[in-house]
Amino acid sequence: MKKICVLFSLTLLIMFLTTDLLNAQFAGGNGTEENPYLIETAAHLNNVRNYMGSYFLQIDDIDLTGYNWVPIGVLPTPEGDQPFYGTYNGNNYLIENLSISSPNHDYIGLFGYSIEAELKNIRLSQVDIDAVSASCVGAITGIAINSFVSNCSVVSGSIKGDNLVGGLVGGMGTLFPYYANNKLSDDVSKKANNKFNVYSYFDEMIDQLLANFVGFNSKSYYDFPVSNITNSSADGLTIEGNISVGGILGYQLHSDVKICYAQNEIIGDDEVGGLIGFMEGSLTYQTYSRSSVEAGNQLGGLIGKMEGSLLENSYSTGLVTETQPTLYRGGLIGNKDLNSPVNNSYWDIETSGILISAGGIGRTTAEMAYQPYGMDTYSQWRFFNVWLPDEVPGFLPSGVFPINDGYPILVNLISQSTMDDFFEGEGTELSPYEVSTWYHINLLRNPIMLNKSFVQTGNINLTGLQYTYNDRWDPIGSISEPFAGNYNGNGYVISNLQGVGGTSGNSGLFGVVKNATFIDVSLNNFSVSGQENVGTLAGLSIDTHTKNASVSNSTVAGHKNVGGLYGKVERKNVFADNSAINGVTVENTSVTGSYSDKENIGGVIGYCSIDVSNPNYNYNPIYIRLNDIVVDGITLKGTKNVGGAIGYAYNTYI
Fold it and tell me: Model's pTM, two decimal places?
């Protein structure tokens, strides 16, 4: 009995000591997705390297002054060195004064070697990276393999490296299992730069990775999603390197870059671009560069070199300067093969100082900067959903726009300071941003706005939202980036949103809302269509509280989970009763299953349930609560689970 008591006491002591140790290393959390480690200080950030596969959430600005930073994560070795393969959410807080001096190895950045990692909402300012002998150098991460970089920005500073150098990421690739037996350098059609063989470099790296990172090559081909950089920017940097140097990314292998921009000074030798140095087997679209580029060979205002890649809906304006005579220079692209199409992309022939390019269309400044834009410039671009004309809207106060010398701007990359100038209020619950026009509504899709508070201050007629291409509203919020803020309609009406939908799921004014609040929202004359999860207010609502919402004179059509207000409502957080829906009226509205196997069609909600996969569920009597529901004059059509209020309900209290 004494032995049992002693063992029990030792077990408790170890548990307490372990908890104290973790609390000392972080501000809280246990490293899981539901409860990430909390990063509040430079010391906490430095401790991330001790838990490479965990989840982290930054909760305050961090100053790294005094640190000669050692990058988090290295190429795995037999001695046990590991890459970073977790998730770091910077939560839009700032990390200042990152400094790295004279490292004796490759893979340099805040993170060094990242694989199967997610790096998001990271803001860096005043970086100073001096790694002139290193390959794979970038402020966010030196290399990203099978990884995702989203909503990240780097503002001001200097980055120096040797090969594969970028403002955000040095090298990025998606490595599939077949690489174990089919090396890049075995392809005789590939022509490596005679000063640096990127193919042999990657082959050697992959060999070491496969030998020392357990389980990496055991997955099937389809378990490897394409690496990407999205909604990210690099601004005010001086970036220097030799081979494959870019304002955002140095070397892009089988990966995507979308909704990004760079405005830096780029200096290199070969394969140098304002946005990307060398693109191979990759896709880049909805991007721009205003970087100046200086190099000796294969230099372009946007891309230095392209092989087997696709570029769409992008532009560049920066000065392109060759340091020695070369045939491979271009206002947009320096050099490309025949298997690299360039669609609807442009460069400014005046500001770039160059009339030629391996791809794209040259335009004058007057045609590219708003006056308005030239008739044949920016053809088939998605204005308002993705891009905004850099103009002063006639119905809004002046003094904010233009912010980009008249060239188109990306909606998702408008800065917080510009938003603060544009909106009345501060975006907090006590001082919400004021929403009075369709222009304000459209800007809610910017990732930095998704968790803010808003109050509507007048009726909004979305008839004024005119598209130049595709004629579709892109819903605000997605599965990966849901709307998680507070919206108070204040009794005012949003009307005439037409043409919502597309081929993907989650269609509505909002696509996906999670942990959000909607109060006193009124929608009139909406036309929404889609496949799965279709509603006027939102396609998918998760753990969201709704009070006093009304929908009238609208049509909703879809394949599965189609509702007058929400397509699908889920409750995932079983500890918080925040999924109540109180006071909903749906009038004179048509809700239709528009396909042969149409199911879960409801006047208010198509499908309503608890997420029973949640390990905390345990079949406890937890409900989604609906109160004061009024449905009047609606038309419902479907083949299975069709109801006046709800098509299909599970654990729902009405």
Answer: 0.89
- Cβ-defined contacts of 202-209 (< 8 Å, 24+): 202/173, 202/253, 205/75, 206/175, 206/179, 206/180, 208/75, 208/76, 208/77, 209/75, 209/76, 209/115, 209/145, 209/175
Separation CA 383–CA 386 (nearest Å) = 6
* 458-510 residue pLDDT tens: 999 988 565 544 557 889 999 989 999 999 999 999 999 887 765 568 999 99
Q: Report the distance separating Cα 513 and Cα 543, nearest Å.
A: 8
Q: What angle do CA 355, 284, 301 make, to 5 degrees?
A: 25
- The contacts of residue 301 (CB under 8 Å, 6+ apart) are 273, 274, 289, 291, 293, 316, 317, 318, 320, 330, 331, 332, 347, 352, 354, 357
Burial grade of 3 (CB within 10 A; 0-12, 13-18, 19 or more): exposed
Q: How far is CA 589 from CA 526, 527, 531, 535, 634, in A?
A: 9, 10, 18, 11, 5
For residue 276, with 0-12 CB atoms within 10 Å meaning exposed, 13-18 middle and 19 or more buried, which class applies? buried
How distant is the alpha carbon of residue 237 from its chain centre?
22
Report CA-CA distances (Å) from 136 to 37, 200, 206, 249, 603: 28, 14, 14, 10, 55
Question: What is the C-alpha separation between 41 and 65, in angstroms, rounded?
Answer: 12
N- to C-terminal Cα separation, the chain: 54
pLDDT (tens digit per residue) in 360-413: 999 999 999 987 888 889 988 988 889 988 887 766 666 788 899 999 999 999
C-beta of residue 320 within 8 angstroms of C-beta of residue 354: yes
| The token pair that represents 401 in the structure block | 């726009």
At 478, the amino acid letter reads S
Rg over CA atoms, the chain: 26
Q: What are phi and psi of 644, to 5 degrees?
A: -60, -40
- The first and second tokens of residue 645, run together, are 């209020």
- What does the H/E/C string look like for 467-493? CCCCCCECCECCCCCCECCEEECCCCE
The tally of CA atoms less than 13 A away on the side-chain side of residue 32 is 3
Which has the closest alpha carbon to 198: 180, 183, 219, 208? Answer: 183
Long-range contacts, 192-200 (Cβ 8 Å, 24+): 193/243, 193/244, 193/270, 193/271, 195/242, 195/243, 195/269, 195/270, 196/135, 196/163, 196/242, 196/243, 196/244, 198/163, 198/164, 198/243, 198/244, 198/251, 198/278
